[in-house]
Amino acid sequence: MRSRTGPRRPLRRPTATAVGAAAVAAVVLAAALVWSLWPSGVSVPSDFGTRPRALEPVTGMSSGILDDAPGERKTSGPVSEPTALHVPRVSLEARVQGVGVRGDGTVEVPDDAGQAGWYRFGPAPGSPEGSAVLIGHVDDHTGDLGAFAKLYGVRKGDTITVAREDAPPVRYEVTAREVVDKDQLPDEVFRRHGRPVLTLVTCAPPYDRERGGYQRNLLVYSVPAG
């Protein structure tokens, strides 16, 4: 993922960086809309909970670099692809499409800010291990909020449902949320092994147009319900 207004830059690993607006006026409007979702005086969403970690050593990673090349899947068995995301308490409804890696090494994001992208080279939601990653925009180039702006309002214990193609939906429970610098994503975000988790990723302030857009990422973690 990269800012729509910022220059392309080479990255060493698939990662979710910032997604911004295309024009200054739209950026100002979108930022005002996003900020209106938060309590007065809070510049970024607050962290809560503890990031889920693998119960076994995470393999295939070194300093956040995946050992398999982007575009190669190292999962076995059939995959039921996600088709829709639903977080009822915050009224988040989004269609889900598979996304991969851009030529510059950044993770693709759907053009439609109302949709979510599933990182298809990692685990799928419902997989018995690893982190399934869904990525979405916080705002659109028009200044409208993206679907994932509603993640700023999630709470611990919220239910997330992911509909799947040719398989029953899977339910998760939100356990943690954190804001990290866009170049400091935890290794666990793209891990393929260990306890199953659903990781939702979007952008967070501050926004710096000269540095390529939003400078932080909001991560929401959830584990299988029940």
What keyword list fits this structure?
mainly beta; Sortase_dom-sf; Sortase; two-stranded antiparallel ribbon; Sortase, Chain: A; disordered N terminus; 226 residues
Layout of strands and helices, then pairs:
Elements: H1 24-35, E1 61-62, E2 65-66, E3 82-87, E4 92-99, E5 116-119, E6 131-136, E7 159-164, E8 167-181, E9 197-208, E10 213-224
Parallel strand pairs: 4-5, 6-9
Antiparallel strand pairs: 1-2, 3-4, 3-7, 5-6, 7-8, 8-10, 9-10
Description of the molecule:
By secondary structure, this protein is mainly β. The protein has a single domain (24-49, 80-224), classed as Sortase (Sortase, Chain: A, Beta Barrel), CATH 2.40.260. 5% of the residues lie in helices and 32% in strands. It contains 1 helix and 10 strands, in the order αββββββββββ. The chain has one helix spanning 24-35; strands at residues 61-62, 65-66, 82-87, 92-99, 116-119, 131-136, 159-164, 167-181, 197-208, 213-224. An 8-stranded mixed barrel has the order 3-4-5-6-9-10-8-7. Mean pLDDT is 76; it is low at 1-13, 15-42 and 56-72.
| Arrangement of strands in the largest sheet | 3-4-5-6-9-10-8-7
Within CATH, the superfamily carries the name: Sortase
Mean pLDDT: 76
Largest sheet: 8 strands, mixed, barrel
Look at the structure and give the CATH class: Mainly Beta
Could you say what the CATH architecture is? Beta Barrel
* Domain module count: 1
Regions with little confidence, pLDDT below 50 for 5+ residues: 1-13, 15-42, 56-72
How much is the radius of gyration in Å? 16 Å
CATH fold topology: Sortase, Chain: A
The number of helices is 1
The total count of strands amounts to 10
Distance between the termini: 32 Å
Strand content: 25-35%
Shape: globular
Q: List the secondary-structure elements in sequence, H or E.
A: HEEEEEEEEEE
Fraction in helix: under 10%
**Which structural category do the helix and sheet elements fall into?**
mainly beta
